[in-house]
């Protein structure tokens, strides 16, 4: 148990250099932009006066040598001072915090449901290896891999909102409606179906394929033969002995997917007008608000790093052998 | 004598890119209740395929029982529907494997894995299961069983893991234990302990044991009768002491000469020349003739018939001077 | 040498041909490449010209109809194919080159260089790549070059990891030691000895990366981060979006085009994988 704790602690320590690296990347990007960083922060928005730029230059320490600027900037980022969004005239952190919830709801719903369905289909495909079910699932996965997510979202809107009119085409809540607590949750859920489906479908395909391969590998191992020799049915072996082991390599991949998921979420949110980070990115793009964009990159990277930490800890719980390593 | 297991003309085939290969070719033998029978042979002789075929554990995708009968306590296992077969596996026939590290699931506790066959076959009520697991672990000589049940396979030593496998196989009180190379993956000192344990449990529980091994020393220690396999075929069978004292088949003689068990240390390293032929390239006639010191032209001409003498059987033309066709 | 290469290509083609889906993918790819190369010549319509009434259904004059500004959708598809293929292939090539260099150096020399390079690679694998690509394009203003660069910047890490693994596995082998004993320089060993062995899996991942790059490009131009002087499929979907209720086909058509293109590339990549790495044959 103690070795597991120290494993978690050791893993948690690795977050520090990762976050530092993200801050450095942000600093580099800020200085790669054409012109003075203060111009980037203020000028590109087109609303800033000369005094304002000078004030910015001072407050961000941009009149200092580059090395000083670097430490001032890193220090600011690490205390979550991401600057002021000049268009919105509000701290970037505040804007992001406001939108983070909606994005997390979308992402977690999409990935949760998708992984669940994908794992089940993957087990099914492995059990029915080389049957037409297996082939059909493989073909479907190939098509889904090739589908641009934002376009899938548009097509789902055409079909489910415009033609069938069963799901709303955008937003997170019915505008102007007064609901009790239960109904307002159901209302959000109804709005969530299409965007989460759009975002999740790719991962259904991905996890079906991953689980299928992993299951096929595991099903040839000796301990599966042992389980058969105990008199267990194939179905039961697949869902207990095999699935539990087949999951291990897949859980580690989940961490890698989080960054990808966030990118997809941004596109899907713009399609469905979901009031999360994606919409914030679009607003920032339209108004050329680079400070806001940099803030979004910083925070979303930190979220990914922390999620990876969480995934590794979960892995440690799933694999009893890890404590030994 | 009514046999517990009567295998007749068992044939096992595997699919390969070059077509079906006969890993086991018309093998017959019997096991009486409470008897220990050993099947010996080099790797690739088909001995492990027999073990897997008896419980019908050959994956459908790779091979199948292509013929023969496996009569166990009056039922033909080869013809049994899958659901009925599941009630035989782990209940009336238990099996242990070569490498206990690989044969135990790394993510489940020892306790859970031993309890599984108990619960599957309804041998004990759920709430009694863990007590029974502790009893079983005590039976197979695992110290501190109450602690072991919460541990994982990687926490145990090789010998302890094989004891766990044995406890698992014995959980539902089988009448036959199939042991597929149970000591090969273990340290030499542990091998003897595990063998002694199997022997002791056999006597205590009155079950029969089918021991698959390449190690003649192991055979002489625990088995009453031995079946010698070569390239998928049975070449010799009989009581261990008779076969070892006076082998009828040149291959058995070669095996005995090559094993370090037989007396004279100077003779020890005299190995059989050549190697086991690939199943795809079996020679005509007797499979062994290319390596046989006594080969004659007629050995190539036709497959030798099985000859019998008392409890002994051998498939070699040289035995026919003294033996009759079986 | 030439004979060897030629016979290698022939046997590769024999193995590739066994996968019928891959051959289909290759045929589709060939059609798309032909359409991109000669389409605009055979169908000389400027995709930015407002030639007809807005949002018309397909007709004799406009085989795929017009968009909201009365521009010819077929002309847009043909010109868009050029952009998609160009950016997809260029970004994949650039990413492969960077990834190969990083992975080769890390895998061959090991030690602190390996540690530094691989930490950097892992870092780039972690951060949300699409967000980074958006930022790079936003900072530098959209152009084909910048879009290509931004996609390459977020794509090279996977190549680097793969290349490193290959170089590590070859590094300790006897033939490499023998080359060293013969006095070959590190650069020679890496380029002439190890690289040819490491290349097959890298080629596969590079071909699949073209597909991902095309998807990323379409996402960027959908967000309005496309090169404003060139029409692209993602931009066309974005245009059609405004009239989704009345003219859904306007977004559907370029979307299906992307889907078919990416699917074809993936099929070819799978086929290459089976043909180049027969040991790792898919089940």
Q: Which terms would index this structure?
A:
heterotrimer, A: 325 residues, mainly alpha, MetI-like fold, two-stranded antiparallel ribbon, 13 helices, 2 strands, 76% helix, C: 283 residues
In short:
Chain B has 326 residues and is an alpha/beta fold.
Outline the fold blueprint.
The complex is a heterotrimer of chains A (325), B (326) and C (283).
Chain A (H helix, E strand, L loop, with lengths): L1 H12 L1 H18 L4 H5 L8 H10 L6 H13 L5 E2 L4 E2 H36 L4 H14 L3 H15 L17 H38 L3 H8 L4 H39 L4 H10 L3 H29 L7
Antiparallel strand pairs in A: 1-2
Helix pairs in contact in A: 1-13, 2-5, 2-13, 6-7, 6-9, 6-11, 7-9, 8-9, 8-11, 9-11, 10-11, 11-12, 11-13, 12-13
Chain B lengths: L4 E12 L2 E13 L4 E5 L6 H8 L8 E10 L2 E2 L5 H7 L4 E4 L3 H4 L6 H11 L8 H11 L5 H4 L9 H13 L5 E5 L7 H18 L2 E6 L2 H7 L2 E6 L2 E7 H6 L4 H9 L38 H5 L5 E3 L2 E3 L9 E2 L1
Parallel strand pairs in B: 3-8, 3-9, 6-7, 7-8
Antiparallel strand pairs in B: 1-2, 1-4, 4-5, 9-10, 10-12, 11-12, 11-13
Chain C lengths: L1 H16 L2 H23 L30 H37 L1 H16 L2 H12 L3 H28 L2 H8 L4 H37 L10 H9 L7 H28 L7
Describe this structure in words.
The complex is a heterotrimer of chains A (325), B (326) and C (283). With 325 residues, chain A is an all-alpha fold. Chain A is 76% helix and 1% strand. In chain A, β1 (84-85) and β2 (90-91) form a beta hairpin. The radius of gyration of chain A is 24 Å and the shape is globular. Chain B has one domain: P-loop containing nucleotide triphosphate hydrolases (Rossmann fold). Chain B contains 12 helices and 13 strands. Chain B is α/β, with parallel strands linked by helices and 326 residues long. Chain B is globular, with a radius of gyration of 20 Å. With 283 residues, chain C is mostly helical. Chain C has 10 helices and no strands. Classes of the chains: A mainly alpha (325), B alpha/beta (326), C mainly alpha (283). Chains in contact: A-B, A-C. At the A-C interface, α2, α7, α8, α11 and α12 of A face α4, α5, α8, α9 and α10 of C.
């Amino acid at each position: 148990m103690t070795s597991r704790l120290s494993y978690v602690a050791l893993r948690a320590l690795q977050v520090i250099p990762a976050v530092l690296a993200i801050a450095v990347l942000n600093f580099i990007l800020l200085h790669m932009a054409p012109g003075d960083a203060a111009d980037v922060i203020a000028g590109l928005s087109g609303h800033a006066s000369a005094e304002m730029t000078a004030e910015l230059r001072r407050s961000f320490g941009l009149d200092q040598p580059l090395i000083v600027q670097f430490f001032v900037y890193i220090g600011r980022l690490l205390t979550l001072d991401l600057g002021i969004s000049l268009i919105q005239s509000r701290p970037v952190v505040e804007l992001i915090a406001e939108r983070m919830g909606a994005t997390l709801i979308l992402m977690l719903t999409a990935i949760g449901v998708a992984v669940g369905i994908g794992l089940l289909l993957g087990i099914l495909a492995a059990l029915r290896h080389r049957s037409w079910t297996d082939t059909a699932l493989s073909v479907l996965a190939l098509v889904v891999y090739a589908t641009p997510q934002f376009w899938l979202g548009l097509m789902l809107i055409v079909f489910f909102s415009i033609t069938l009119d069963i799901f709303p085409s955008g937003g997170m809540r019915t505008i102007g409606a007064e609901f009790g607590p239960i109904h307002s949750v159901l209302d959000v859920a109804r709005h969530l179906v299409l965007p989460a489906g759009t975002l999740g479908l790719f991962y259904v395909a991905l996890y079906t394929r991953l689980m299928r391969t992993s299951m096929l590998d595991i099903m040839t191992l000796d301990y599966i033969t042992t389980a058969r020799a105990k008199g267990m049915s194939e179905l039961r072996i697949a869902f207990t002995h095999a699935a539990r082991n087949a999951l291990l390599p897949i859980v580690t991949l989940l961490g890698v997917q989080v960054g990808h998921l966030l990118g997809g979420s941004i596109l899907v949110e713009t399609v469905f007008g979901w009031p999360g980070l994606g919409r914030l990115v679009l607003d920032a793009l339209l108004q050329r608000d680079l400070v806001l964009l940099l803030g979004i990159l910083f925070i979303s990277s930190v979220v990914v790093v922390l999620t990876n930490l969480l995934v590794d800890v979960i892995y440690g719980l799933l694999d009893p052998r890890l404590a030994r390593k | 004598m009514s046999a517990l297991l009567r295998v007749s003309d068992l044939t096992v085939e595997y699919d390969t890119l070059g077509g079906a290969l006969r890993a086991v070719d018309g093998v017959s033998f019997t096991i009486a209740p409470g008897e220990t029978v050993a099947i010996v042979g080099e790797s690739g002789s088909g001995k492990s395929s027999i073990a897997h075929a008896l419980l019908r554990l050959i994956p459908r995708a790779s091979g199948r029982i292509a013929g023969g009968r496996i009569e166990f306590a009056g039922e033909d296992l080869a013809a049994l529907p899958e659901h009925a077969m599941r009630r035989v596996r782990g209940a009336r026939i238990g099996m242990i494997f070569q490498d206990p590290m690989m044969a135990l699931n790394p993510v489940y506790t020892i306790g859970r894995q031993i309890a599984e066959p108990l619960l599957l076959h309804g041998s004990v009520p759920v709430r009694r299961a863990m007590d029974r697991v502790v009893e079983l672990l005590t039976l197979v000589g695992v110290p501190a069983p109450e602690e072991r049940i919460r541990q994982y396979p990687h926490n145990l030593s090789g010998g302890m893991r094989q004891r766990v496998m044995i406890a698992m196989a014995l959980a539902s009180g089988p009448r036959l234990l199939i042991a597929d190379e149970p000591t090969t993956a273990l340290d030499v000192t542990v091998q003897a302990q595990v063998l002694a344990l199997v022997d002791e449990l056999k006597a205590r529980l009155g079950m029969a044991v089918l021991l698959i091994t390449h190690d003649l020393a192991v055979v002489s220690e625990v088995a009453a009768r031995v079946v010698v396999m070569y390239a998928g075929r049975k070449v010799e069978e009989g009581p261990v002491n008779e076969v070892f004292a006076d082998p009828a088949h040149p291959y058995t003689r070669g095996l005995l000469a090559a094993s370090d068990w037989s007396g004279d240390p100077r003779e020890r390293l005299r190995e059989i020349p050549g190697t086991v032929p690939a199943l795809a390239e079996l020679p005509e006639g007797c499979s062994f003739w290319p390596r046989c010191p006594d080969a004659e032209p007629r050995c190539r001409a036709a497959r030798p018939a099985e000859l019998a003498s008392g409890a002994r059987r051998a498939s070699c033309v040289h035995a026919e001077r003294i033996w009759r066709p079986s | 040498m030439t004979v060897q290469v030629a016979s290698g290509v022939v046997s590769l083609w024999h193995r590739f041909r066994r996968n019928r889906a891959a051959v289909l993918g290759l045929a589709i790819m060939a059609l798309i490449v032909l359409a991109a190369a000669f389409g605009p010549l055979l169908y000389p319509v400027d995709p930015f010209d407002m030639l007809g009434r807005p949002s018309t259904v397909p007709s004799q004059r406009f085989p795929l109809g017009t968009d909201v500004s009365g521009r010819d959708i077929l002309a847009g598809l043909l010109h868009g194919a050029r952009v998609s293929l160009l950016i997809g292939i260029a970004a994949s090539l650039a990413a492969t080159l960077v990834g190969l260099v990083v992975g080769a150096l890390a895998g061959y020399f090991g030690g602190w260089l390996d540690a530094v390079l691989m930490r950097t690679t892992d870092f780039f694998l972690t951060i949300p790549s699409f967000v980074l690509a958006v930022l790079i394009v936003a900072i530098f203003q959209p152009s084909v070059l910048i879009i290509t660069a931004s996609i390459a910047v977020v794509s090279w890490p996977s190549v680097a990891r793969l290349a490193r693994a290959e170089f590590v596995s070859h590094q300790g082998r006897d033939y490499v030691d023998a080359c060293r004993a013969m006095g070959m320089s590190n650069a020679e060993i890496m380029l002439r000895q190890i690289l040819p062995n490491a290349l097959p899996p890298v080629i596969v991942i590079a071909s699949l990366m073209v597909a991902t790059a095309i998807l990323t490009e379409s996402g960027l131009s959908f967000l309005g981060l496309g090169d404003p002087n060139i029409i692209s499929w993602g931009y066309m979907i974005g245009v059609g979006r405004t009239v989704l209720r009345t003219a859904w086909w306007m977004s559907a058509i370029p979307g299906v085009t992307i889907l078919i293109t990416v699917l074809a590339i993936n099929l070819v990549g799978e086929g290459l994988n089976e043909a180049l790495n027969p040991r790792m044959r898919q089940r």
